[in-house]
Amino acid sequence: MSYLTNFTNETGKSILVDILKTINLAENSQKITEAKAIAGKEMIAMMQYVFPIVMQIQIDVIKNYGFAANREGLC
Questions:
Q1: SS (H, E, C) the chain
Q2: End-to-end CA distance of the chain
Q3: Number of compact structural domains in the chain
Q4: Tell me, what's the pLDDT at 74?
């Protein structure tokens, strides 16, 4: 948990900006769009198809800031 000792508002903003940039990359945007098309308007399907993609993108970004590269790093 050493990431908590160095965490500032600016670090938080940087992480969020990096996550948004990564989500908006063409390859990730396409994956999310395809998952949304499969899910349609069903919330459960969104959780099955879209949520895991977005969560993996977040994990890939936060590990660069010292967070655990798993779901614990997102909590």
A1: CHHHHCCCHHHHHHHHHHHHHHHCCHHHHHHHHHHHHHHCCCHHHHHHHHHHHHHHHHHHHHHHHCCCCCHHHHC
A2: 12
A3: 1
A4: 67
Take residue 65 and report the two structure tokens written for it.
């800031």
Residue 57: domain span = 9-65
| 30 within a domain of the structure (yes/no) | yes
Per-10-residue mean pLDDT for the chain, 75 residues long? Answer: 74 95 97 97 96 95 87 69
Q: How many angstroms separate the CA atoms of 58 and 65, rounded?
A: 11
Chain CA centroid to CA 57, Å: 4
Residue type, 70: N
pTM exceeding the 0.70 threshold for the entire prediction: yes
27: left (phi over 0), alpha (psi -120 to 50) or beta: alpha
